[in-house]
Amino acid sequence: MSLGAILIWIVIGLIAGALGKLIMPGDDPGGIIVTILLGIAGAFVGGFIMQALFGAGSGGFIWSIIVATIGAIILLAIYRAIVGSRTT
What we know:
mainly alpha
């Protein structure tokens, strides 16, 4: 994966993190910054999974945002389950 592809996934992750926060509203233990960071992580995870399954460059920009948003939602749910159970 090139540096340009990594930067693109970071930008997509920022968008996915914001969308994940809109889709899953509520109190997050870390706030919007953690949600955006989880979006970036979800974008990387989703990007690697999509490359492994369908090859590089499959789907386009909108598909990449959808995959990254799904990854962000999954990571946000896991984060809420782990961190939320420790704080209560």
